[in-house]
Amino acid sequence: MKSIMLPAFFLCIAPLLPSTVMAADACEVVLCMYGKTTGNGGGKECSSAEHSFFDIVKKNKHGFLPDHTADARKAFLLECESADPDIISQIIRQFGRLRG
């Protein structure tokens, strides 16, 4: 009975523990990537947002798909409803098809 209780306890408590990996908010990514397009990098504060952007990569069995990657990155940035679509287009034109 004790051997069943301990794993059950950990399964119940696991969702309550804070996650060490936090995904960046889409608006934060838009802000940081727009700064990067204008030559004003955000420094250490923007490193996780930039990683979140460049971690969005689409591949198939033949390799990297730049157009699909750009579409997926654009879809992520569009989750920020307050972002200007022109700014998002500028970010995608400059960084959307690059490999992370």
From TrEMBL:
What is the protein's species of origin?
Acerihabitans arboris
Which Pfam families does the annotation name?
A: TrbM
Q: Write the record's keywords in alphabetical order, separated by commas.
A: Signal
What InterPro entries would the database entry show?
TrbM
Q: Which domain of life is it from?
A: Bacteria
Can you name this protein? Conjugal transfer protein
Stretch forming the signal peptide? 1-23
